From TrEMBL:
Official protein name in the record: Unannotated protein
Subcellular location: Membrane
Membrane topology of this protein: Multi-pass membrane protein
Chief location of this protein within or outside the cell: membrane
Transmembrane feature ranges: 64-86, 95-115, 121-141, 153-176, 182-203, 215-232, 244-261, 273-293, 313-334, 346-365, 371-397, 495-515
GO terms assigned for molecular function: transmembrane transporter activity
GO annotation, cellular component aspect: membrane
Lineage per the UniProt record: unclassified sequences, metagenomes, ecological metagenomes
All copies of domain Major facilitator superfamily (MFS) profile, residue ranges: 29-519
SUPFAM superfamilies documented for this protein: MFS general substrate transporter
Matching Pfam families: MFS_1
Keywords assigned: Membrane, Transmembrane, Transmembrane helix, Transport
InterPro entries: MFS (IPR011701), MFS_dom (IPR020846), MFS_trans_sf (IPR036259)
Amino acid sequence: MTATASEAGAGRPDPPESEDGILVAPKAAIFFLGALGGTQAVDPIIASTALVKASRGLAMEGGMIALAASISTVVLAATVISMGLLGDRIGWRRLLIASLMVSVVGDLLAAAAPVAELYLAGRALAGLGLGGVFAASFAYVRIITPKNKVPAALGLYSASGSVVLVTLSLLGGALASIEWRAAFLIVPVTCALSMLLATVLLPATARLTGGPTDLLGQVLLALGIVGVLVGISHLSQGVSDPQFWLPTLAGVALLGGFVIAEQRVESPFFPVAVLRNPLFLGAMAAGFVYNFTQSSTVLQFSNLWQYVSGLSPMKVSAGTLPFLLVGIIAALLTGQLITNGLRNSTVIFVGGLLCALGGFATLLHRPGSGYLTLLPALLLLGFGATMASIPYGGLIVKAASGKFSSFYGPVTSSRTTIGQIAYAMGLALSTVMVDKLTTGGVVTRLRESGVPPTRTGTALDSLGIYVRTGKDPASRLAEQTLSVAKASYLNSFKVTMVAVGLLALLAALFGATVLRRGAAVEAAADAADTTTAEWAGE
């Protein structure tokens, strides 16, 4: 298929509208696009797995390690919307191949880096490149898929990404345990193969020229996102810590400046009016359910097994497999159900409800209980979160294909930025909650067992040493502290997961309500475009 520009010169490629159109999306192409999305998702997982050995090998310390852990995802989130604009301008296949090349260079540089500075440069390049990879892979779904088949295509896209994520993350963990540099070869090899497949499976799209550049808007948006993400990453240090509130406030101020600037500039690169669109608001809510639940679940279950059960990293990875594998089933089933007429508002609500039930299911776990008592929670959380991911993508695609079609690239690419912010919030908020509840519980239990307040500080210090090093306690007080800490941690874990599930349900209720109330308004405002009624189910 050859794409055409809109009359304004800054539109999106025109997709086929039915199976009688020029191109019907082959399943192989959709599976390939999902695999590209999975490659982007697995890169930071592999990097996190390899970080301990990489930081030791490159003599990283403190802030350098924290920067190494987050730099690729921060760069990706800050630049991916601009990548969407670039995809409209140069053509999506050109952007995809160029981004794959940048990703290869970035991770090869990280793998071969003799010093920490080059490692950081490589990870930043990888984030930049993989942002373009994801932007192109997601945008292509609508480009090559008939409108009535998009939900099913997104289900296959998500399932394919999950398969790649599970497979490559396990391979990355195995290689990282042997040699951390070898783990960083996985993504370059995958990207190199993808360059060849892209030319075979994907159609070229036209270069859409003459649209806005709006460099000021792009810079304000990128810096604002960086500020918010950096601030959220320091939330665990407390809301009064300048490392949290300074970048967060600066980021919010820059994002506010971005909104004002986009409303005043003659040719904005991103339509801020989409932030009031019911489809987009519903997508944001669904994205929160998916990303917030996913990050909280994987992190907190992993920490529970590592700190309380004492499992090895490989066993921890294996323990989370049901959460990921059930998502494959959920993605395929949900995509087909929406294609057959199930409302997006219903899907989002059910997804949030399952997440809430999953949070409460953690209450089944007791001290000394086996893995199977946590399995219902993992399955409910995994199925519910993945259910929400299908309308999350579909509603953004539909918003970008309707009245905001002249901003197709930036709007579809915003999915990643929304997801990164929600994901970071899940990591930060769940960590803070578990830490605060655990510390309070430890202090209370020590006091009840007769430990004087003057020795509480020493007890907590010994607990910190265990968390950082994994070494067994060396004193009776330390043994006592660790014992009560494990019990307190388990209680804190369960309370936190219940809270995570309830927050997901609240977000789902908001999204479902917005879609239901907004559908009629959207349909009346644009009677010629049935998108809202079709996708919101009203």
